[in-house]
Amino acid sequence: MNLKKNIEIHYDGRELMCFADRPNDFLEIFKHVVKTHPNRIALCFNEKIITYKQLDELSDNLAGGLLKSGLKEKNILVINLANSIEFVVALFAAFKTSLIAMPVGHRHKKEELTSLYNDAGISAVIFDKETEKEQPINENKSPILFISTFNDSKIDCLKFNDLLQRGAKEKIVSNNIHEEEPAILLYTSGTTGRPKGAILTHLGLVHSFLHFRMELELQDGECTILAVPASHVTGLVAQILTLIGCAGKIVIMEHFEVQEFASLAKKYGLTYSILVPAMYALLLHRNTLVAEDLQSWRIGAFGGAPMPDAIRKELSSKLPFLSLHNAYGATETTSPTTIIPIDSNDPGDSVGLVVPCGEVRIVDDNNKEVKKGESGELWIKGPMVVPGYWRNEHASESSFDNGYWKSGDIASEDENGFIRIHDRKKDMINRGGYKIFSAEIENLMMLMDEVQEAALVPYPCPILGERSHAFIFSSSNAIDSNTIRQKLLGKVADYKVPDKITISQEPLPRNVNGKITKAPLREAAKKKI
Q1: Could you write out the three-class secondary structure of 331-378?
Q2: For the chain, how far is it from start to end, CA to CA, in angstroms?
Q3: CB 120 within 8 A of CB 391
Q4: Which has the closest alpha carbon to 133: 120, 148, 116?
Q5: Domains 47-176 and 432-527 share a fold
Q6: Rg over CA atoms, the chain
Q7: Distance from CA of residue 396 to its chain's centroid?
Q8: pLDDT of amino acid 513
Q9: How far apart are the C-alpha atoms of 480 and 495, rounded to whole Å?
């Protein structure tokens, strides 16, 4: 597929490369799929099957119920649910009523939810059994509408099923959608301070779907297993919206579990996946991958971390028909910025080529572009890049430059256009003028059999400025600091080998999105000086 592209002006003056002949919004894509394939299976969850016609009717009914409950266009609807059918129904009900959907991870605590709700200025929350106890209900006589997806809630609130019934009598006439208007708010995890609400628009959603479909050559009727959180940009865009755009089947897992994933893959004929490398590793280590059962599985996308060569080789051996594709992106880029395309000459250590409508710059500390092969901060531009952050002018002004989003990632581009991510800018350690990319050392430590998690952080040094401290989680007693140092010395320059190593049998700290958070490790490193 090769779509014509034009330069267009969007978001008050950004010159962006866009697909010329594209749908106006994602609701248009959905309606076309419903019209073309009404009886095709859209969602599968715990033996329950929902067709595209049923998904359309359910989201119509919920849309009607939400309007009857008093919600109006541009109000914010929080979807604080685990992976579920209700999540997808709520998302499309929001599109149909021009509400702004705000998916929120189901591991957040009450204090975090209160902060997010206040920052966004929300109007309603849909929650489930798992998130009920954390909802800030009746705090300061909140005007927020709370809606439970189950009938025996202990809280006096609206019920999801009641709204479906009330809305069934309503005829939903969707307003004309402007492609630059906010469609979804996704809050960043906030590891560097106050969480920021990235504004995802239909312009970005449509382009991200088209990028995934083109670069991975996705076909009509693909099948995926949603095993990553639907509330994250990967689950939301790379799986839910992309598969619906392909009139495909989404098999929903509430939480990732190795044996269940393999069983569902066989049962439903998995064709396309997007997982973090650790999930592929677990599938291998538990011996759940049987080639005869998984011959339909063609595309294995991954992101969030590099995939070790050993995992790649073992997957290729077990599933020779599975094509692996790294993809790199962020909430602010509505998922993909780069992808290893189908049938490209994958160098193995790259996150791919820039998507067709994307543009990147790699700049030094003075914001000047570096030469090919040199490293610098990656800036990203394109129709998939968000226009800014919700009600946060300071963050929007400081994070964007002439339409480019400053990713904070240190990257390089080779002569063939392949992008490599070396580290987070803030995670780069300057040891006496020598730069250490923490991700490089972390990845090497993760290749060691006994290491389950690894993080490298700096601590202050009066002579060198910074030194490095590695924190490792290992459930094995068979590894020690000297062994780790010796293995690293055989692979990297001596200044990159951690000055201090702490090995623990406890997992490293993580934030609510499941990412290792380094702030407490930096504090711990300082205390150990």
Answers
A1: HHHCEEEEECCCCCCCCCCCCEEECCCCEEEEECCCCCECCCCCCEEE
A2: 57
A3: yes
A4: 148
A5: no
A6: 23
A7: 20
A8: 65
A9: 19
Q: Coil, strand, or helix at residue 112?
A: helix
Where exactly are the structural domains of the chain?
47-176, 432-527
Looking at residue 423, what is its pLDDT? 79
The C-alpha atoms of residue 390 and residue 471 are separated, in whole angstroms, by 35
Give CA–CA dist 371/42, Å, rounded.
47
CA angle 493/458/494 to nearest 5° reads: 10
- Structure tokens given for 259: 């044996």
Distances (CA, A) of 493 to 43, 55, 143, 358, 443: 51, 56, 59, 35, 15
What angle, 0 to 180 degrees and rounded to 10, lies between the N-to-C axes of helices 438-446 and 481-489?
A: 110
Residue percentage of the chain with pLDDT more than 90: 75
pLDDT confidence of residue 192:
44
Type of residue found at 266: K
Q: Tokens representing 496?
A: 């990159």
- Residue closest to 149 by CA, chosen among 87, 64, 63: 87
Strand 76-80 with 100-103, pairing? parallel
Question: Which of 135, 134, 109 has its CA nearest to residue 122?
Answer: 135
Phi and psi (nearest 5°) for 461? Answer: -135, 125
pLDDT tens for each residue of 479-500 = 999 999 999 988 887 889 999 9
User: Which stretches does DSSP call E strand in 46-181?
Assistant: 48-51, 76-80, 100-103, 124-127, 145-148, 158-159
Determine the longest span between alpha carbons in the chain, in angstroms. Answer: 74
Q: DSSP letters along 102-124, please?
A: EE--TT--HHHHHHHHHHHT-SE
- DSSP classification of residue 93: H
Whole-angstrom Cα distance, residue 528 to residue 525? 5
- Picking from 186, 191, 188, 232, the residue whose alpha carbon sits closest to that of residue 426 is 191
**Average pLDDT of the residues of the chain:** 93
Higher pLDDT, 264 or 432: 264
As assigned by CATH, the class of the 432-527 domain is alpha beta
pLDDT digits (tens, 9 = 90+) for 157-192: 999 999 999 999 888 887 899 999 999 999 985 434
Q: Is the pTM of this model over 0.70?
A: yes
Class of domain 47-176: alpha beta
Are 347 and 306 in contact by the 8 Å Cβ rule? The answer is: no
What does the pLDDT read at residue 1? 64
User: Hey, what amino acid is at 181?
Assistant: E
Written as six digits, the tokens of 92 are: 């499309």
User: In 3-state terms, what secondary structure has residue 194?
Assistant: coil
At 26-85, the pLDDT tens digits run: 999 999 999 999 999 999 999 999 999 999 999 999 999 999 999 999 999 999 999 999
Residues 6+ apart with CB under 8 A from 298: 271, 272, 321, 322, 323
For 171, the token pair is 């005829």
One-letter identity of residue 193? G
